[in-house]
Amino acid sequence: MNVGYMTNAFGPLVGSGGGVTSIKDVRYETMCKDEEVFREIRSQGFNGVEMFDGNLDQFASQPKELKKQLQEIGLSLYGVYAGANFIYEDAWQDELWRIHQTARIAAEAGAKHLVLGGGAVRASGEEQKDISRLAASLAEAESIVAQEGLIASYHPHLGSMIESPEQIDQLFSCSSISFCPDLAHLAAGGGDPLEIIKKYRDRIPYIHLKDWDGEGFVPLGHGNIDLHGIIDFLEAQSYTGDWLVEIDGYAGDPLEACKVSYEFLKNTSLNKNIK
């Protein structure tokens, strides 16, 4: 079982400028020096990372070099995160092309997961067909990603059309895509993370461990989420998926947050998996 760390804690989030006029070029990117961040994450004990698609794209011409770089540091690439609108039919083929490119690069770099977030919120309000359109787009994306040998999962996210438990249920009633729960986003969306995980346990191959104090994302153990209960439940269920710690948007020192979170995990039932 793996315990990795998301690199997005180590710099501000931006979107690629080309995406303003060409939707095929929209990507998330953390403004950081990737190799330095890899070394800092490894120094705290984690053995893998997840990256944004924009950071991955910097290695588009040499993905195997990224894999080699990570291996030399003692890390592997657990996953890559990408977002899309999904519901705009005219734009969808360009978005799908971009997801396919990301999946291809990620696979060559040794990744296992491609995490998909999004589902646009319309200025005019949600239309009746939006959930079914999102589900159909996710099915196409899942198929494309699987062709590259990766597992595609959907990540409910604040600011997207899937935030609340009711919205999650509505989507998963018409979509079979795997589920990557982010504990803090589930809580901030009005849900009980443990109950949601119990409900969808059989479709979870990957989980984002994140804490929430009611106002923002914080290091593990510094918020209100029952992390021990969630970890204990999944361990008791013989969960064999992957674990990733994520603490984006935290105002404190990112390296200290990484250290504190690792120390927290050493005092959970995951400690047998931490080397």
UniProtKB/TrEMBL annotation:
Domain Xylose isomerase-like TIM barrel: 38-267
InterPro entries on file: IolE/XylAMocC-like, Xyl_isomerase-like_sf, Xyl_isomerase-like_TIM-brl
Protein name, UniProt field: Inosose dehydratase
Organism expressing this protein natively: Halobacillus karajensis
